[in-house]
Write a structure and sequence with these properties.
38% helix, 312 residues, alpha/beta, 11 helices, six-stranded parallel β-sheet, elongated, four-stranded parallel β-sheet, Rossmann fold
Length: 312
């Protein structure tokens, strides 16, 4: 049985790395692999998440992963799978010294993104990420947009899997909802102020669980997306799964998920499409990359096995 050494991100509450921590190893196991996950959740503490991940806890988690990895015997046919090429940060140098013959990674963003957490040092950090990427057989990304933006030769577009949660069927009591983080990267406050003046308000819930998040989307007619950068767009697929109509910029990876009818290029077009959606003239759309999302895990495994066979 081939073994996968799985290196997850810190499983932050209400971020998808929380369920990737469990779901990816589970799906690899279903496909016949033995999975070793580095670092356990022993001592995991809930917290009020104000950042993408809690800094001190994430660093402690990464140190534990390094400890586990250094004490792990590696075999020739082992596969290493890093769940995010930018995290865990300590693994960059560790893998230069101790590595598997076959290594794969997923890249969710990188510091190249505008307004990223690492923006103050993004040029130098992206150079490190680019060098790091060359250590992997393949780096998987969530959109053609992101692949083109990175410009790496070993990237493969797999899109992302559907969240492993049951969608909701709530009564529509909210007109417009925004679930974006309050940052310049994820929300255009000036643009949203025009929407609030025109339509009387935007519902911005504070979610304490995935159940709350899906329920709020389901009880809303329209999801407003005004992000200034996005390499996939999970909130869009989450909205569609919960019977909410997304309206998003005609930019980034959004055209790979949404039909053109649901995309806007300027403020006037945004207001028009919001009006159409709220008045029943736009149905909940189909997800354009639905098939790829349905076969995400099979596609990942197929790419891994093909890459290994090609170098044998």
């Amino acid at each position: 049985m081939r073994r996968i050494i799985f290196i997850p991100q810190y499983p932050s509450k209400m971020r998808y790395q929380e369920w990737w921590y469990y779901k990816l190893p589970e799906e690899f196991s279903k496909r016949g692999y033995e999975v070793v996950t580095l670092a356990s959740l022993d001592g995991h503490v809930e917290y009020d998440m104000k950042l993408f991940s809690p800094i001190e806890t994430s660093i402690q988690f990464e140190i534990q992963q390094i400890h586990d990895f250094l004490n792990l015997d590696l075999y020739d046919d082992d596969i290493l799978f890093l769940s995010d090429i930018s995290f865990p940060g300590f693994f960059t140098n560790v893998l230069y010294h101790k590595r598997c013959k076959n290594m794969f990674a997923f890249c969710h963003a990188t510091s190249l993104n505008r307004y990223d957490y690492f923006e103050s040092c993004r040029n130098s950090k992206f150079l490190v990420e680019t060098g790091f990427s060359k250590m992997f057989n393949k780096v998987f990304v969530g959109s053609e947009y992101h692949k083109k933006k990175l410009g790496w030769n070993n990237t493969v577009v797999t899109y992302l899997p559907f969240p492993p949660f049951e969608p909701k069927k709530e009564n529509k009591t909210v007109d417009i909802i925004s679930v974006a983080r309050p940052s310049i990267q994820k929300r255009d406050d000036l643009l949203e102020s025009f929407v609030e003046k025109r339509f009387g308000g935007i519902f911005r819930p504070v979610c304490s669980s995935w159940n709350d998040y899906f329920r709020y989307l389901s009880m809303s007619k329209v999801l407003l997306v005004t992000a200034n950068e996005d390499t996939f767009g999970y909130q869009i697929t989450d909205a569609i799964l919960n019977d909410c109509i997304p309206i998003a910029r005609n930019d980034f990876a959004y055209p790979e998920i949404l039909p053109e009818t649901y995309l806007y290029s300027d403020t006037a077009e945004l207001l028009l499409k919001l009006d159409l959606a709220l008045n029943g003239h736009l149905p909940v759309p189909e997800i354009k990359c639905k098939t790829q999302m349905e076969h995400f895990y099979d596609n990942i495994v197929e790419e891994i096995e093909n890459a290994i066979q090609n170098i044998q």
